[in-house]
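Lecture 7 notes: from sequence to structure.
We start with the chain below.
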Amino acid sequence: PAGPRTPRGDETLGPHPNAQLRPYQQDGVRWLWWLNRLGLGGCLADDMGLGKTVQVIALLLLAKREADPGPHLLVVPASLIANWQTEIARFAPSLRMLVAHPSAIPGKTLATLSAERLADIDVVITSYGTLIRLPWLQATQWSFAVLDEAQAIKNPAARQTRAVKALKSRVRLALTGTPVENRLGDLWSLFDFLCPGLLGSNKTFTRFARRLEQDEHAGYAPLRNLVQPYILRRLKSDKRIIADLPDKTEMKAYCALTRLQASLYEDAVDALGKQIASLDGIARRGAVLAFLMRFKQICNHPSQWSGDGAYDPDDSGKFARLRELAEAIAARQEKVLVFTQFQEMTAPLADFLQEVFGRPGLVLHGATPVKSRKSLVEKFQQEQGPPFFVLSIKAGGTGLNLTAASHVIHFDRWWNPAVENQATDRAYRIGQ
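Predicted structure tokens for the same chain:
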């Protein structure tokens, strides 16, 4: 991009010593500013951990410097509101910020706010859930509307997707490390927000995507060429982008079933066999899914399936393997994140790891109040902070910066590898 009002991209953000943008981040800000000047929507799809947040903050600072009156809207998952507050206060304290969320403003006051009350505000931060409940957010004319973790609108029929697409804004931007999380249709929903009509109607695109998936010789080049101008994606694996991030080592840790687990597992297999022999159609598929969940629970710990609350470590092969891994991490005085898909597993895991590390750790799941999540992250990031953090993958798997950890353990596997990668990259990011 060129022109008299295109930024050089060598800006620093605020007084923080680490606020100098890296070269690829400078390129990102220039690209976002180019979209802004053309009034186009775009998706910043950098790999998780490459600093999408700081690039958007630089864009907002640049807009203020260039007399863009705003206001701008940031729509983020509720768990990331505190993270955005912290980053803006750290890198751009001159930006006047309003958090439109019940965790910051009482519900009655929040409902009575209006576009007229935003005259002195540069950026409003809200959550996807709050956006649905506050009509004035959709009635306001925004300069930028920015979606963080934009895979949240992958389902075009969802209520929050419809609310997001009803926003009035001059420029629409999306941030996501996984623009296609499950299927090609995710991309259509994202672009229906960014550039409505670019990929045709949902029905037309679905037929096109199905043809691509069925024909192994069909090329993706036409689609790639169509969306390429509106997507910027850089990868951590590219040493030209970032050379000082340590290599990531991944390993599968195999665990043997205990005698109790093997017995319960075998009983469950027999029960499933009897059920599916007498079922068909949707009932048969439902039974299979229900038993898949039962198998996962038995493999985690028999007590998760039985609900007896005992959680004797000797009853689970996974607990035995986790002890081995955690003891090695504790001996090196390093930190670890432990993810599970089950909220009910977080407390037993935390109790078990406290015994291994000899110190208490932290727990975050869907029921953790939004107000307290910021302080949990800050505690963990301190050098002398807790040695482990147990998180449910849906609540803690996106957006958080937990670079104090050198290790990530997935105690049980999520259905979608992209979601697991998002969780892993809470630690594997700049600053690790």
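Points to note: Residues 281-300 form the longest helix (20 residues). The chain is about 45% helix and 10% strand.
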